[in-house]
Write a structure and sequence with these properties.
heterodimer, A: alpha/beta, disordered N terminus, B: alpha+beta, elongated
């Protein structure tokens, strides 16, 4: 039973236990490991026991909206108890090993290994080594084949499950897609009998894929009740600073803008919008519940949300001084969106043209033109915003040197406008990442540009941007590892395991990523890094994303001739294959 | 506008918070309790809240103080205190509130009492404490980005009391706060540990009491709002 104080643990005894307190006294930021947040749930004696994990440090993991959904639903709407564990920072990991203290949960300081099911949200490929790190720190055998009746069932979910092969042997099962409708079935599958029976029951839950089983690919699940459901109304509110320290309301799921490079845009189809009344009521309650002073309207493209203007206005009226933010802006409607921000919250704005020329933007189905870009930049500086970040990619399929130089030309335009309008007061940053082809996108079988080409293009661009414009590049080596894993087939897991054995941890953090570990692992396992091509779409053996292969192929053909595809939100159906039966778009009238 | 003195305690798990995190927790506790905090002027208004004596990360505090400015008309009643208590996260407890009106009282600490547990040979720790108590000067260097400062711990920390416990020793000491600042508990522990040749890690640290400047109404001095039950 949940205790009456907001999720309070029992502090009457030795809290935290002495052996853990000794570790906390020796590490940086011990608050990462101590729990005690607002709205923590502790369900003493509840079964089954589930642990939810995000394979990164606490400040990142606690901000993950998916984990909040799972935590709330499992604790509040099922008999199960759900607790949390995040990846210990290396200083803590070293101490845990030296002291022989296994990974614990934040709610009860219990060993993670004692749970019935350990669920991981897998956000991206560079988090895989951290999964192995957490399994090892918990004392759970790395390979599913080595686990026995005492070990938890390890279940993977999240967007990186689009291609589970690089981590397949480390998991007992994966859930593919949106799990909300199936949590009760998963809990029911964890009966009191043994591990084998539990796995057999789990295999019958729609969306579950068990590596090595002969049931074929799992079909991606779509939460058809999204629009009518409330967002999480009692989220865990971190007491130490997190990367996203605000009320988050998911206003829309899915995006049909159709950007051909974007895996999320393909993966989360179709678009489903929540009613404005529901969103505003949730914001009101969440502000009371959390004590936060900022609300973020979350989705893949919140400017496309049909109720965005009304929702922004009504939420801002809820509390004096309340800040409301959108995580992303569309360039073609940025001027209107920017004008709706209050004067007091005009900080930095990010615009994402993605590519430097019209031809390449059309090829990736990002049909933004130069005039729209210029208007958005003008609106940013005229609106008094203090900074502008422009986000581009290099290495896109079909990219030429002129496309790369086009980025410098757009940066020059923005710099000129900054000088004219804000008289040098506004900051301008050009951020350039390296494109990595992803599974289940029209570019899924297109070549990866490769480290050598990417470095040449980075130099070309660095030399071409006007003086005074700050430009930042993503690490090519990290992109090369990401590209290898994003489309890796069976056997790629050996690369991940070998890299972890050689010390790979927190590869998404520039201060921890060391490509030599991955180079050595590649040499040891015979798995080349950053191969341009992939033999076949291995991921389709495990995952059916509901996308029609004809649609993906047709989109690739359109990309090659620079033809745009209409957004099916207000244009013709693109026949992507997702809608049908109970699944369809749900738009605000 | 009116300033409140808010007395609170910080224990596990909240004792692992930083100073800024603790300040934000107090702020959010007020928001969750529905008690508004006045905002500063300017382009980016900030809540008017201050914790005048930072508590080190990992330290518990039995008698901590925050000053919070609230809009006119908000009264420091027992109901408000109850709401604040219910809105606090585990390990944070609002003990008392007292309205001191305007202007900002700007509390200055004069002394703070600490107790800590240091692991290691209790005999060696006791000998190191004896040595400290009898030495005339205990010079330590404090290195910061602004430079290196030499300070004599004996000017800030009086006699230390050591009591042997299983596996280590409890140390009790009082740090004086002067115009030129104060010593940090860790600086004393580093010295004792160095002399005792033990690891300078405190298994627990608690600040049990703070003495504030004259003229500061104390929430502990009978003016506080008690819960009716």
């Amino acid at each position: 039973m949940t205790t009456s104080h907001p999720g309070s643990p029992d502090l009457s005894g030795d809290w935290p236990p002495g052996e853990i307190a000794r570790l906390l006294a020796r590490v940086t930021r011990p608050g990462r490991y101590a729990g005690g947040e607002f709205n923590t749930r502790v369900k003493a004696g509840a079964l089954p026991r589930i642990v939810l994990s995000y394979p990164d440090v606490y400040e990142i993991g606690v901000s993950n909206p998916a984990l909040q959904i799972l935590y709330s639903h499992l604790n509040d709407a099922t008999p199960a108890s759900a607790e949390r564990a995040y990846c210990p920072w290396p200083d803590m990991a070293d101490l845990m090993r030296a002291s022989d203290v296994p990974l614990w949960t934040l709610e009860t300081f219990s060993p993670v290994a004692e749970c019935d099911l350990w669920g991981f949200t897998l956000p991206h490929e560079l988090s895989y080594a951290n999964v192995l790190e957490m399994l090892d720190l918990a004392g759970v055998p790395l390979h599913a084949a080595e686990r026995d009746g005492e070990d938890p069932i390890v279940l993977g979910g999240g967007p990186a499950v689009a291609n589970p092969w690089p981590v397949a042997p480390f998991f007992d099962a994966f859930f593919v897609g949106e799990v909300e409708d199936h949590l009760d079935a998963i809990v029911a599958a964890l009966g009191e009998d043994g591990r084998r029976a539990r796995l057999e029951r789990l295999a019958t839950v729609p969306g579950v894929w068990i590596p090595g089983s002969d049931r074929g690919p799992a079909v991606r699940q779509v939460f058809t009740g999204f629009s009518a459901s409330d967002p999480v109304l009692r989220p865990v509110v971190p007491v130490m600073e997190a990367v996203h320290d605000r009320v988050v309301i998911e206003v829309m799921r899915g995006c049909t803008a159709g950007c051909r490079f974007c895996q999320a845009g393909m993966w989360y189809r179709p678009v489903r919008e929540r009613p404005v009344d529901l969103v505003v009521a949730a914001a009101d309650r969440l502000l009371d519940e959390t004590g936060c002073d900022e609300v973020s309207l979350l989705s893949l493209s919140s400017c496309d949300y049909g109720g965005v203007t009304e929702a922004l206005k009504r939420i801002r009226e809820l509390r004096p001084g309340l800040r409301v933010s959108l995580p992303s802006l569309r360039i073609d409607s940025a001027a209107e969106s920017l004008s709706s921000f209050a004067a007091g919250q005009r900080g930095s704005v990010t615009l994402a043209p993605e590519a430097g020329t019209q031809e390449l933007r059309d090829a990736i189905d990002k049909g933004v033109d130069e005039a729209q870009f210029e208007e958005a930049v003008r609106a940013t500086f005229q609106g008094g915003f203090t900074g502008l970040k422009l986000y581009f990619m290099i290495g896109l399929p079909g990219e030429t040197e002129d496309d790369v130089l086009g980025i410098a030309r757009m940066a020059a335009t923005a710099a000129r406008l900054a000088k004219e309008i804000s008289r040098g007061r506004a900051r301008l940053l050009v951020s350039v990442s390296s494109y990595v082809p992803k599974a289940h996108t029209p570019f899924e079988l297109e070549p990866f540009a490769g480290a050598a080409t990417l470095r040449v293009r980075q130099r070309l661009l660095r030399d071409a941007v006007p003086r005074g414009v700050r430009i930042a590049f993503h690490d090519v080596a990290a992109s090369t590892v990401e590209a290898t894993l994003a489309r890796g087939g069976p056997g790629t897991d050996r690369l991940v395991e070998e890299a972890w054995c050689r010390g790979a941890r927190f590869d998404g953090w520039s201060e921890h990523f060391d490509v030599r570990r991955w180079d050595d692992a590649a040499a040891a396992t015979g798995t080349p890094l950053g191969e341009a091509s992939v033999a076949r779409p291995y991921w389709r053996d495990a995952v059916d994303a509901r996308l029609s292969p004809d649609f993906l192929e047709d989109e690739l053909v359109r990309a090659r001739v620079g033809e745009l595809t209409e957004d099916c939100r207000d244009g013709a159906c693109g026949a992507c294959g997702v809608c049908g039966g109970e699944i369809g778009m749900e738009l605000l009238a | 506008m009116s300033w409140w003195l808010v007395s609170f305690s910080r224990t596990s798990p909240a004792r692992y918070l930083s100073h800024l995190d603790t300040s934000r927790v107090v702020q959010r506790t007020f928001a969750r309790a529905g008690v508004p905090i006045a905002l500063s002027q300017g382009m980016r208004p900030k809540p008017r809240i201050s914790l005048p004596l930072p508590l080190p990360v990992g330290a518990a505090g039995a008698d901590e103080l925050a000053t919070v400015e609230v809009p006119k008309g908000i009264e420091a009643t027992a109901d408000v205190l109850r709401a604040l208590r219910e809105a606090s996260p585990p390990g944070m407890e609002i003990v008392a509130i007292v309205d001191v009106g305007d202007p900002h009282p700007r509390p200055q600490a004069r002394a703070a009492e600490y107790a800590c547990l240091l692991d290691g040979d209790a005999g060696a720790i006791g000998a190191a404490v004896e040595r400290y108590n009898h030495t005339e000067h205990a010079i330590r260097e404090r290195v910061s980005p602004k430079g290196t400062r030499r300070l004599d711990l004996k000017e800030y920390v009086g006699d230390v009391v050591a009591t042997a416990v299983g596996g280590g020793a409890h140390l009790g000491f009082t740090i004086s706060h002067r115009q030129d600042g104060a010593a940090r508990p860790q600086e004393l522990i580093d010295l004792i540990a160095e002399w005792a040749q033990v690891e300078p890690v405190m298994q627990s640290l608690e600040r049990s009491r703070i003495t504030w400047d004259h003229g500061l109404p104390s929430p502990q001095a009978g003016q506080r709002k008690e819960l009716s039950s």
